[in-house]
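Minimal example, chain plus DOR.
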Amino acid sequence: PVDQSVDLAGVRLKNPIVVASGTFGFGREYGQFYDLSELGGICAKGLTLHRREGNPPPRIAETPMGILNSVGLQNPGVDAFIEHELPELRKHDLVVIANISGNTPEEYGIMCEKLSEAGVDMIEVNISCPNVKAGGLAYGTKPELAAEVTRVAKEHATVPVMVKLSPNVTDVTEIARAVADAGADALSLINTLRGMRIDVNTRRPILKMNTGGLSGPAVLPVAVRMVWEVANAVDLPILGMGGVAKGEDAAQLMLAGASAVAVGTACFADPYAPIRVRDGLAQIACAQGLDKVSDLTGGVRPW
Ligand code: DOR
């Protein structure tokens, strides 16, 4: 059997499969399907300093090739997560990654301090939410702001800081370099790709916010391309994600340069998707005669 363990910025995962932020909530509801210890890790639903209701509905629109969301960071706030959710997650053997968004760099700093002290394994600094005005995408599309948030997060965190990048940019390597120079320990990509759907009969956008972030099968090739570009530009470990639903999808992201892979939208149709991806990936590594799944990372060959 192939060795499935991987290292992500010094954090060991028993296998490279993580559930993406926003898809397993805080893990609670999924314990009924299988033991969360089957997973390499969980990125918890995005947190803010104070609780948020999120954006007005409708805020989910399905399309044939993915889901548009404009949720707007609905969450109970970082303190409630630490008090009520983290202890539950800790009953399982998996890496716990907290995803955070702030209105200011200072808010990121405060959350990094609280979450480090509470004992999460890693912090995913979200600078790429397409659905909020303050913070969010504003930080993820400008190299100086992305760097500033990263610096403040690093100053206040005692666990590895992974910065989540946006696909809604022309040159992702510019942002990746700025974030790397500011001290990030790892990068995760991609967040959702801005999109829109219109109801032809009412002539109104389906989403109350008009636009949302697209996830699911449609974005996999975008994710593979961006992971590959970033892996070639900076020397940081990458958590790759975007439309992963089977082992082959995860293998593509790893060959492009990812050290681990997150499964997101596929979880909505099938909570077992991460398990299927994990086993399919191990099978591919095995069939290629590898001893370790981690040997896939960066293994894409030049033409
Ligand atoms: O697509 C997304 N939706 N990306 C995020 O980072 C946050 C989330 C939301 O809550 O809107």
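The chain has one domain: 6-296. The mean pLDDT is 97.
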